[in-house]
Design brief:
Layout (H helix, E strand, L loop, with lengths): L5 H6 L6 H11 L3 E4 L3 H11 L7 E4 L6 H14 L3 E4 L3 H11 L4 H4 L2 H16 L4 E3 L8 H4 L5 E3 L11 E3 L7 H10 L59
Parallel strand pairs: 1-2, 1-4, 2-3, 4-6
Antiparallel strand pairs: 5-6
Subcellular location: Cytoplasm
Keywords: Cytoplasm, Iron, Iron-sulfur, Metal-binding, Oxidoreductase
Pfam families: PAPS_reduct (PF01507)
């Protein structure tokens, strides 16, 4: 890979042309992967596969996902005939955590420590092997934390002194309606939980269906204030854990 010029990339791409952003990012980086968990991410996969059959995709298995989500992951794997690298938490760290605090401590002292072990640490290990990654983040997913989101950026959360990691957010300006219009138009697979009132889907204990006109983030960590509704995968201030 030649030295990546972020300023030039931003200048030569249009923030509303998601497919072009994905294609050009994949041209710039050989060692790039798509982070997959939800509806937005399958849109990314669909766009990427149309440009390159050798798309790299990974997904976080926290050990607490809905059965529907596990079926969804396998459905996407088969539909696009791709490999999906499934990332799991460190066994020792997880065993120590659950031994000390049980399985539902997040209802008492917040979800951050649990997410740190089950999500952030596996992601951190994966990203250390990559030069860039592509996410399905949208500005309107969580207005309190994502209202400023570039379609291409340095990942300040996971870059190291030895290596700069780049992150692409091609759907930054998309709405939920845009995502679902694409899914319907191109017959893209989606998690069956969406048909049961779930919009934003995470771990089973921390996700619930939302009522009509409720913001999608209301279904995640509903016992916490809105400014806390991030798991540490996309914010600059990483969740502190003993394993970091």
């Amino acid at each position: 890979m030649s030295t990546f010029d972020l300023t030039s990339f931003v200048a030569n791409n249009v923030e509303d042309e998601a497919q072009k952003i994905i294609h050009n990012a994949m041209k710039e980086f050989d060692n790039i992967a798509i982070s997959f968990s939800g509806a937005e991410d399958v849109v990314l996969i669909d766009m990427a596969v149309k440009a390159n059959k050798n798309v790299k995709v990974f997904s976080l298995d926290t050990g607490r996902l809905h059965a529907e989500t596990y079926r969804f992951i396998d459905q996407v794997r088969k539909h696009y005939n791709i490999e999906i690298d499934i990332l799991s938490p460190n066994n020792e760290a997880l065993e120590n955590f659950t031994r000390e605090k049980g399985l539902f401590s997040f209802f008492e002292d917040g979800h951050k420590e649990c997410c740190g072990i089950r999500k952030v640490q596996p992601l951190k290990r994966k990203l250390a092997t990559l030069d860039a990654w592509i996410t399905g983040q949208r500005k309107d997913q969580s207005p309190g934390t994502r209202n400023v989101l570039a379609f291409a950026e340095v990942d300040s959360a996971f870059s190291s002194d030895e290596k700069t990691l780049y992150k692409f957010n091609p759907l930054a300006n998309w709405s939920s309606e845009d995502v679902w219009n694409y899914i319907k138009m191109f017959d893209v697979p989606y998690n069956e939980l969406h048909s049961k009132g779930f919009v934003s889907i995470g771990c089973e204990p921390c996700t619930r269906a939302v009522l009509p006109n409720q913001h999608e983030r209301e279904g995640r960590w509903w016992w916490e204030e809105s400014e806390h509704k991030e798991c540490g995968l996309h914010i600059g201030n990483l969740i502190p854990t003993a394993q970091q």
